Amino acid sequence: MEPLHEEKLKKLEEKANEIRQAIIRMLVEAGSGHSAGSLGMADILAAFYFHILNHRPSEPHWPERDRLVLSNGHICPALYAVLAFAGYFPLEELGTLRKINSRLQGHPHRGSLPGIETTSGPLGCGLSQAIGMALAARLDRKKYRIYCLMSDGEQQEGNIWEAVMFAAKYRLSNLTAVIDRNNIQIDGFTENVMPLEPLREKYEAFNWQVIEIDGHNMRELVDAVNEAVAIFEKPTVIIAHTIPGKGVDFMENKFEWHGKPPNKEEAKKALEELRTLGRRIKSEHQ
Amino acid sequence: MINPNLKLNPKLFDADIEQKPTRDGYGEGLLIAGEENPNVVVLCADLIESTRCEAFAKKFPERFFECGIAEQNMATIAAGLGISGKIPFISSYAVFSPGRNWEQIRTTIAYNDSNVKIAGHHSGISVGPDGATHQATEDIVLMRSMPNMKVIVPCDAIEAKKATVAAAKIWGPVYLRFNREKTPVLTTEETSFIPGKAEIFYQSRKPQVAIIGCGPILFNALLAAQELEKEKIGVVVVNCHTIKPLDEKTIVELAKKYRAIVTVEEHQVYGGLGSAVSEVLAQKQPVPIEFVGIKNVFGESGSPAQLLEKYGIGISHIKMAVKKALKRKR
Lengths: 286, 330
Prior knowledge:
The complex is a heterodimer of chains A (286) and B (330).
Chain A: H1 6-30, H2 36-40, H3 42-52, E1 67-70, H4 76-86, H5 126-139, E2 146-151, H6 158-169, E3 175-181, E4 184-185, E5 188-189, H7 190-193, H8 199-205, E6 209-214, H9 218-230, E7 236-241, H10 264-284
Parallel strand pairs in A: 1-2, 2-3, 3-7, 6-7
Antiparallel strand pairs in A: 4-5
Helix pairs in contact in A: 1-3, 1-4, 1-10, 3-4, 3-9, 5-6
Chain B: E1 19-21, H1 22-36, E2 40-44, H2 54-59, E3 64-66, H3 71-82, E4 87-93, H4 95-100, H5 102-110, E5 117-121, H6 139-144, E6 150-152, H7 157-169, E7 174-177, E8 182-184, E9 199-203, E10 207-213, H8 218-230, E11 234-239, E12 242-244, H9 248-258, E13 261-268, H10 273-284, E14 289-294, H11 304-310, H12 315-328
C-alpha cells in the first residue's frame, strides 16, 4: 500500500463527502433503506476502495484482487456509491436502488452487480465467507488479502463466533475484519438490546489481534490495516468507533435512523449540511 | 423382471445380497473426486468417521477442514470457498445440515450460486435408535424448494459413489442425501447413472402401476413388486435418484402408460419425491397417485426395520398403496 500523503487524505475525505451526498440522494429516491450505518461507514469504504484495496474496477473478476466482503449488507447504499465512484458501473445507476429490474438490490446480491463479492443482508454470515476466501487464497498460494466489514449489532449472531474460533484455529493472517462500532441497532443501543462489551477482550480471548481506531480518521484506518498486514499467525479485527449518521447533524447517534430513509425535506437539509462540510474539508487542507 | 440393460446386481433377490451403507459410497466418491480435481475440498463438523470423511482427510490433509460443531459456519465457509474456485463438500447429519443451517445455505450458497455440495447424512427414519431428533425427514423439501439447488438421493453405496463424483462436476449447489444403515447394493459399477435421469429397475410382464422411489427404500419397492406379481399385479419400479431437476419426461411417460403411480420415499410425504412427482403430473398427465412416506409425524427410537414398518414405509405399505392406486385407476 502507498503511504497516505496529506494531499491524498484530503482527496479521500472529499470522496467520502461525495459518497455521503450520493447516499442521501439514493435513499430519498428509493423511499426505503438504511441511513445511519451507510453514512457512518462512508469514510471506511472510501479509504478501502480509493487507497487500501488492490483492485481493478474495469476488471471486477481479476483473480489477484483483494476481496472486500460486506457482511452488514443493509448499508449497501454506501457500498454501491463507492463502487460507482470507483468506476465499477455508471454513477447514473445509483438512482435505481431498490427499484424493479435494478442491479442495485435492497441488499447486495453477488452476480447482480460488478464488484459485489458476496450476497449479504442476513447478518452474521460475512466473516465465515471471508474465511472461505482466505482458505482458498492460502491453498492457491495467492497473496491477495480478504477484508470483512461487519456491523456491531451482528456480533450478536452465533455464526460470527463460530467463525471467530475457526479463523483463530487456522491462523488466518490474510484476513482482516473491521467492525463498525456505532453502538446502534434497529431496536436501540447495542448495550441495551444485547450488550457486546467488553468487545475487545472477547476477540482477544478468542486469539485475535485487536486494534481500535476512530472510524472517521482514515489515517488511523490505514495505519491499522498496515499493522494487520504485518502480523502473521493471527487474524486481526479493527474495531472502528463510528458515529451513525455521520455528517448529518439530525441523524447522528440516533438509532431511529438505522432503518429509514430521509424524506424530501430532510434530504434537502442533509445535502446542505454535507455541502457545507465539503467546503470545510477543502479549506481545512489548504 | 430386472431391467437387463442396467446391469444391476445379479444377486438382487438373493438372501445374501451384499449390504453397505450409502455413506460409504460418499467416502469413496470423495477420494475419487479429490484425485480428479485438486480444487475439491471437504469440510466436516465433528463427524469425520460417521460421515466417512476419514480417507479424504488422510489423503489430502491440506484440503480438509474440521469446523467443529458449527454447521452454520461450515456452510458459510464453504460458500466463500465455492466462490473462490474451490469445490467444497460439507458433511454432517442432515438434521443439522441442511437443517440447522438452512438460511445460510439459502443466502450464501444457493442465492450466491456458490459451487458447494451439501452431504446430508443419517437421513430418514432408519437412523434408528438415536430417535426423532436425529432422523431427518424434511431435508428433501428444504433443499428442493430452493432456487439453484439440485437434489440427488442415491439408492445404494455404488450409486452414492457415482453421485458424489458427479456432483463435483456439476456446476453449482447440489444436495446429496445419504443413509446410516447398511442397505442392499442394488446396482453395479456398470449400471448407468446420469444425474437427472430416472431408470426403470424392474418391470413385470404386464405392468399396471408404476412405483417411483428414491434412496435405499427402493429395495422395499423391488421386494413388494415380486410379491405383487405372485398376486397377479404387475408393476414397474423406477429409481428416481434425482429429485431436482426431476426427469419429467420419464414420469409423464409412465403416467401415460400405466395411469396409476405410487411414490416411495423415506421422507415426509409433504414436499418430498411424491410431491415433486405429483406437481408434474397434476399439470401434464393427471392420474391417481398414492404416497408411501412418513405421514406428518416425527419418528422415535427403534431398529430401522421396526421403524420403517411402524411409520408406514414397509413392504406391506407399498403393496397396499399399489392396490389402492389400482382401484382408483381409470
